[in-house]
Structures are given as C-alpha cells and as structure tokens.
Design goal:
By secondary structure, the chain is mainly alpha-helical. It has one domain: Rhopdopsin 7-helix transmembrane proteins. It has 8 helices and no strands. Helix 1 packs across helix 8 and helix 3 packs antiparallel against helix 4. The longest helix has about 35 residues. The radius of gyration is 20 Å and the shape is globular. The chain starts with a helix and ends with a helix. It comes from Anser brachyrhynchus (Pink-footed goose). Keywords: G-protein coupled receptor, Membrane, Receptor, Transducer, Transmembrane, Transmembrane helix. One of its GO terms (cellular component) is membrane. One of its GO terms (molecular function) is oxysterol binding.
C-alpha cells in the first residue's frame, strides 16, 4: 500500500524527472546553437551532465516507492543512494563557482577552468564515491527488499562528524554568499535606479542570485533537518523520522529544475 509519504515522494521525483529532462534537453539545444566555450558554458555543461546522472537514477526510486519493494540488489541500492549525494554536493560546488566568478568578475582561461572542473569530477568519482560505496550501508545487515533505510549508519561517530561538517560548510557558504550577493544587488539597484533592468551588470548579478535561491530552497531545508535527524535518530525506534528525511532529501533533487527555470527567466527578461 502506497502511504501518503510515498505519494509525496512519487510526486516530487516525477516532477524532477519530467521537468529536469525537459530542462536538460532545452538547455543542451541552446548551448549547441550558441557554440560558446566561455567559463560559464563549461560549468553549465557539467551541471547538465550531473543532472543527467541524477535523472537516470530517479526511475529506480520511483519503482521502489510505487511497488514498495526493491528489486535491483544491494549494490544498486547503495549506488542510487550515492548518486543523490554526489549530485547534491557537486552541484553545490558548481553553483558556488558560478556565484563567485560573477560576484568578483573573475576571468579564467579555458584551460584553468577545465582543469579545476576535471579535478572536481575526479575527486568525486575516484575518492568520495568509492569510499561511500565501500562503507555506507555495509556495516549493518538490511533486508534486500528494502532500500534507502540506512538510518543505523548515521548513528556511528565518523558519519555524525562528516554530516555535521557538511552541514556547517554548506550553511556557512550559503549565508556568506547570500549577504554579499544581496549587498551587491542593493548597491547596483541604488546606482542604476530606475532603469536597473537595462544594465548588463545588474542582470548578471540577478542571475547569480537565482542560483543562491536554488541553494536556499533545495539544499538548506535538508541540512537543517539533518541536524535534528542526527540528534534524534537513536531515539526513533519506530523510524517515524525516516520518511521526513526522505522527503527533505527528495527536495534537494528539485535543483535539477534549475535549467528549465533559468531558461524561463531568460525568456521573460528578454520579452520584457
């Protein structure tokens, strides 16, 4: 029987799959037409690749929540779990790069940008992902018909420390970038008022703020709840908190709608 929590998850992941796929297709078409090789284009292309990996994993999650049974084996379960976290933190890294580049008007040569982007992928694919797959979900025995029920793992001291560090870093970076970005937008608004939309500099900073909003809406709720979940997990004998954790985690995947939303914003701003 599909519970109300599973219904929410099915709706969220279905929206991700439909909207994310459309966004990847449309943005890929736009980039192909422009044939630009700027720093921003390189980062956007990597975001599209990241979103594609996530979108490929979503049907597995939908199957599980609809059928109420995992049919793809333990390794696939851990792999699908790893993808969602890899996607979240790597997307966050690229968002931060976009915001910082625009905030401080940094100029990078294509080779430098390509180098650090490759470094991010290698760090994730060759270090973080193998460690995650080797240890996460392996220290305890779980039923093969269940998936994403690794609540026992999070109670271990190393996992608690890692989670607190990730929460602290993400929240601190988001807070600092939000304050700086808002102050820059305010100064530009005062400087160019009332014709602010006609200035390229203001529009560029407004677009950067879009990515901050995505981080605040998609990533922040999960990490705030994560702190509460870690503190209360050992008391949650009936696993009542687990569905809420899954919903907040599903909310992080809504960032794959960024390309579709970004295109809509560009279309609206150009028409106005």
């Amino acid at each position: 029987m599909v519970t109300r929590f599973h219904s929410v998850l099915i709706i969220l992941y279905s929206i991700d799959l439909a909207g994310g796929t459309l966004g990847v297709i449309v943005m890929s078409h736009q980039l192909f037409r422009r044939k630009s090789q700027s720093v921003m284009t390189i980062i956007i292309i990597n975001l599209l690749v990241l979103h594609t990996f996530l979108l490929l994993s979503i049907p597995f999650r939908l199957s599980y929540y609809i059928l109420q049974e995992w049919k793809f084996g333990t390794f696939t379960c851990r792999l699908v779990s790893a993808i969602i976290y890899f996607h979240m933190y790597t997307t966050f890294t690229f968002y931060v790069a976009i915001i910082i580049i625009r905030l401080f008007r940094l100029e990078f040569k294509k080779c430098y940008t390509t180098t650090w982007v490759i470094a991010v992928w290698l760090l994730g694919a060759l270090v973080i992902a193998p460690v995650f797959l080797s240890y996460y979900g392996t220290s305890k025995t779980y039923p093969s018909s269940q998936c994403f029920h690794f609540q026992q793992e999070i109670q271990e001291t190393p996992m608690v420390i890692v989670n607190y560090c990730l929460v602290g870093i993400l929240m601190a970076v988001c807070a600092v970038l939000t304050v700086i970005q808002l102050s820059v937008i305010y100064k530009l608004a005062v400087k160019y008022w009332p014709d602010i939309n006609s200035h390229v500099e203001f529009r560029a900073q407004a677009k950067s703020f879009f990515f901050i909003l995505v981080m605040l809406v998609c990533f922040m709720p999960h990490h705030v709840f994560r702190v509460y979940y870690i503190r209360k997990c050992h008391l949650d004998k009936d696993h009542k908190l687990l569905p809420y954790n899954e919903i907040f985690l599903a909310l992080t995947t809504m960032c794959c709608l960024d390309m579709l939303c970004f295109i809509c914003i560009l279309c609206f701003s150009s028409s106005s």
